[in-house]
TrEMBL record:
Its main location: cytoplasm. 3-phosphoshikimate binds at K30, S31, R35, S178, S179, Q180, S207, E326, H353. Coiled coil: none annotated. CDD domains: EPSP_synthase (cd01556). HAMAP family: EPSP_synth. Belongs to the EPSP synthase family. It is found in: Cytoplasm. It catalyses: 3-phosphoshikimate + phosphoenolpyruvate = 5-O-(1-carboxyvinyl)-3-phosphoshikimate + phosphate. The keyword Protein transport does not apply. GO terms for molecular function: 3-phosphoshikimate 1-carboxyvinyltransferase activity. Catalyzes the transfer of the enolpyruvyl moiety of phosphoenolpyruvate (PEP) to the 5-hydroxyl of shikimate-3-phosphate (S3P) to produce enolpyruvyl shikimate-3-phosphate and inorganic phosphate. InterPro entries: Enolpyruvate_Tfrase_dom, Enolpyruvate_Tfrase_sf, EPSP_synthase, EPSP_synthase_CS, RNA3'P_cycl/enolpyr_Trfase_a/b. This is 3-phosphoshikimate 1-carboxyvinyltransferase. It comes from Streptomyces ardesiacus.
Amino acid sequence: MTVNPAHTPLWPAPHASGAVDATVHVPGSKSVTNRALVLAALASEPGWLRRPLRSRDTVLMAEALRAMGVEIEEGVGPDGTGEFWRVIPAGLRGPATVDVGNAGTVMRFLPPVATLADGPVRFDGDPRSYERPLHGVIDALRVLGARVDDDGRGSLPLTVQGGGALEGGPVEVDASSSSQFVSALLLSGPRFNQGVEVRHTGSALPSMPHIRMTVDMLRAVGAQVDTPESGGEPNVWRVTPGALLGRDLTIEPDLSNAQPFLAAALVTGGKVVIPDWPSRTTQPGDRLREIFTEMGGSCELTDFGLVFTGSGAIHGIDVDLGEVGELTPGIAAVAALADSPSTLRNVAHLRLHETDRLAALTKEINELGGDVTETADGLHIRPRPLHGGVFHTYEDHRMATAGAVVGLAVEGVEIENVATTAKTLPDFPDLWTGMLGA
Ligand SMILES: O=C(O)C1=C[C@@H](OP(=O)(O)O)[C@@H](O)[C@H](O)C1
Ligand SMILES: C=C(OP(=O)(O)O)C(=O)O
């Protein structure tokens, strides 16, 4: 958790003068877009992504696939259909170089893809990417027949010596530090000679909705996947080898990126409408309907989207966020403004996200006068009157949006490096001021 002086311009977080009342069109889901790109690249025919997220993480994914020989055309569809990416798969090539930035989805989903390239693929990224866990993917690929050259630490930078194919088969992985280890192996699994059988062996597996998203999206392109939920063994996922279909997929809005806007309705006692909120989804952000209702709001899911209304009251919450860890910063921000304490549990793995999110949230809220303590697996937040000051973001998009939520209720909050929101939501400052009618 270091502050990069190159990224310290301060953005005065707008203070809400009254209840917000806005409709916010939230761009596409990062997690869906990056899975869709990988699956389209591995398919045996071209596919389309409509309304993809265009942000640092997804552009890095697209660039990496292009570096391995996949053609990705970008354009704008007929009225109302928005931008599209057309993905034309090709035999995967090496040598290639991939910049993962600090995108968990790129650093974990692509090494298995690179085993199918016909030469070496070098992976590197931001300094923080060297600290994020990757050993589960590296060790598993070696067991499945790949050659991966790293510095022995089980992390980036590394080179996958693509051999044009991978044997695949059964493998054990401790994915307790990131569900993305499991998703990564499953996504490329249909293209391995024997498919893949992933057995999670560690303590609790976080972010299960993201694994369900992987399974759903694999099935939607024709893969056969057996899961614990479909009658298989607990903690075992099996993907049968086979060709993948090209799809025409419209990407859902990113419900985790909808979080700060919903929080704005909660914090100001206002109303925010998010068009196109899906009626059925694997995105963890869907849990916000329940969590933010318990914290004082109410919501209605209509054919148009989600209508979320704050009551003026903000209540604390005691909640297990293990399945939906990426929602923690936004919930912590609201909890710091609540009328009673909160306990956020089962998110120890957030210490290895974009930054150590538990330490960062504790430090930044406390520096504004808050009373947050880190527990072994989460945060305990006792609301206190807050004051203005600089909210550091540690190159973490969700720290920046969390700081903006606090700033709605507390005058004089300045967000350091709000541009870091470009990881998943480049339009954030404009969407935010637009919501406030500025
Ligand atoms: O697969 C995905 O798209 C994601 C899985 C989760 O990762 P972890 O299981 O590492 O928390 C989540 O936090 C991340 O934002 C996106
Ligand atoms: C943890 C996150 O991202 P990543 O995909 O880089 O793991 C996140 O977006 O909150």
